[in-house]
Amino acid sequence: MIQNQEEVLPVVEASQEKTISIVQLIMDGGIGGQIIMGILFVLLVVAVYIYIERFLAIKAANKVDKNFMNQIREQISAGNIEAAKMLCAKVDLPVANLVQKGISRIGKPLEDINTAIENAGKLEIYKLEKNVSVLATISGAAPMIGFLGTVIGMIVSIHEIANAGGQIDIKMLSDGLYTAMTTTVGGLIVGIISYISYNHLVVRTDKVIYHMEATSVEFLDLLNEPV
């Protein structure tokens, strides 16, 4: 029993010595792998920043009082156009901006009012989608950058094999293999995070756009109501 325990202990110690951190893996990947991982880290920071900033902006844009259109209806029915404009300016949200644009065109043909609202809606959508396309770019570029690191790592490994003179040692190939593996994993992680973030923002933006369209239709119906 004592001999068996003595045989187990070196095995445990050896397994503990083989444990390696992610940072150590990156550092062991050589200068090429470090540069690639640095680029991927910057892309990850940019993607996370854009997602958080846009998420908060889109979330705020969708916070509209349910009684907003009822108040607008009351003011317009009473002929208080300026009061309705002030109410829209006070809310200062995409939906309110569309209604304000429509109110400012009251008295003109309904087609002109509709056109003005549509143009204002395009501007509001552009504001909501600001920098979101960058996430789509990162989701596609990050894996390709990671694969570039893989190719660089394989080139390094092949170069070491060519210079080995027939004596191949796994330690000679470690830098290239570390570069190949870590950059691939890093690129895929950044790409997946960016892709999920992009699609989540698109879904939330579509909800705001739907709300804007519904409010625009309600406002136009309000103008068509008999006095």
TrEMBL record:
<keyword id="KW-1003">Cell membrane</keyword>
<dbReference type="GO" id="GO:0017038">
    <property type="term" value="P:protein import"/>
</dbReference>
<comment type="similarity">
    <text>Belongs to the exbB/tolQ family.</text>
</comment>
<protein>
    <submittedName>
        <fullName>Outer membrane transport energization protein ExbB</fullName>
    </submittedName>
</protein>
<feature type="transmembrane region" description="Helical">
    <location>
        <begin position="31"/>
        <end position="52"/>
    </location>
</feature>
<dbReference type="GO" id="GO:0005886">
    <property type="term" value="C:plasma membrane"/>
</dbReference>
<feature type="transmembrane region" description="Helical">
    <location>
        <begin position="132"/>
        <end position="156"/>
    </location>
</feature>
<keyword id="KW-0653">Protein transport</keyword>
<keyword id="KW-0472">Membrane</keyword>
<dbReference type="InterPro" id="IPR050790">
    <property type="entry name" value="ExbB/TolQ_transport"/>
</dbReference>
<dbReference type="Pfam" id="PF01618">
    <property type="entry name" value="MotA_ExbB"/>
</dbReference>
<keyword id="KW-0813">Transport</keyword>
<keyword id="KW-1133">Transmembrane helix</keyword>
<feature type="transmembrane region" description="Helical">
    <location>
        <begin position="176"/>
        <end position="198"/>
    </location>
</feature>
<keyword id="KW-0812">Transmembrane</keyword>
<feature type="domain" description="MotA/TolQ/ExbB proton channel">
    <location>
        <begin position="94"/>
        <end position="213"/>
    </location>
</feature>
<dbReference type="InterPro" id="IPR002898">
    <property type="entry name" value="MotA_ExbB_proton_chnl"/>
</dbReference>
